[in-house]
Amino acid sequence: MKQFSKLFLLAMLVIFASCKSDSVEEEQQGPTQDALRFENGIVVSDGEEDKELIFTADSEIIKGDGLTIAAMTNTPNVAKVYNVVDADRAPNSNDGQPVSNMWWSITGTDYDSPSSYYSTVNGDNMVFTEYTDGTAHLVGTTVSGTCVVDVDVWFMDKKTWAEWEAIGGGHKKEGTAGNASNSEDMSFYVIDGSRSTLTANGGDCDMTGTFGLIQMPDPNDPNTPNFGAHIGPGGANYDSNIGALGLSTWGWITDLSTGEKLYTMDFNFRLELAEEECDDCIGKVTDLTLNWDWHHDYRVRVYQRYENTCYATKIFDSVVGANENFTINGSNSNGTFGSYVYIYVGNCYYTKIKTNCYLNIGPGYRRGVVEVVSGHSTQGGELCEYEPPHHWCWWW
Fold it and tell me: Which positions make up the signal peptide (predicted)?
């Protein structure tokens, strides 16, 4: 064991000594930006290296998803977030169909039964989020009388009209806004039945419990039309607001255990782009997306203190390209970074970012060539834009 410790310390000594030769080529490539400088082949740090930070063999074992580059992450990036707005059901609003966002049919023909329609109550609307990987997520609650339905529905395989039509898809145009809409303006999804649920509770519910939800008509049945879920201008078919952004789709509510089809339903609602909400850094930082603002690729390693001890633990290690974003996540048991994250370029310490919210960091905060793009804190949620003090200056 002693022999292993000696070998490890020797290896670490060689690694950090190699700072001298790691970036000589960079120095010799002519004019460079002032932000990343080298002296005698060594990257110039912020001069604030933590001398109490101890590296052991365990320090090089990445905790969490430390190899994640934002563009390659398994967690898709958010494209747009919308608030769901109830549609007025035009032209059927005078036939017993109330302002609503969902229809849950018990008989399949109860179109004019007000109790089968669900809507927003007290401003507690659903939220529809689109992701860059072609998926989308509808989540929130909708209410009819004392029946409250928790909606957790995923959509997948986003396509343009041309792509949708090429696989035999159709556009179900009906209602005031739907009949006035253009297929070319629509995007199309399919409900992901493998992870979509509706949970009903309350005295006015015909059935209570958690149910599955699958696309109707069945997109894999060649004997039925394939309408999927469409989103775009006039997408809320039954609504008087022609051209307003909306969504319509149809589904089978199923027994979650057996898959038996129990009821039919539809979503029919408008969408309004949600205002971005953020807050100061409160508590501790849990994750950061950082931008490598430099014109050369470099190996970047990021460490934090293991459970706030003096021992370093690695949370990221990858080659980062010019202007590339990368994401780091806190590895403490509470999901945070602790006081700092420590950034190494090549084999050398470069800078650190304070992550205990004593400094109100946020998008726009930078240390050298590393800039914060986004992040979250435990009590404040999404971080707001960083506002530097008037007396600030850069260390490079």
Answer: 1-17
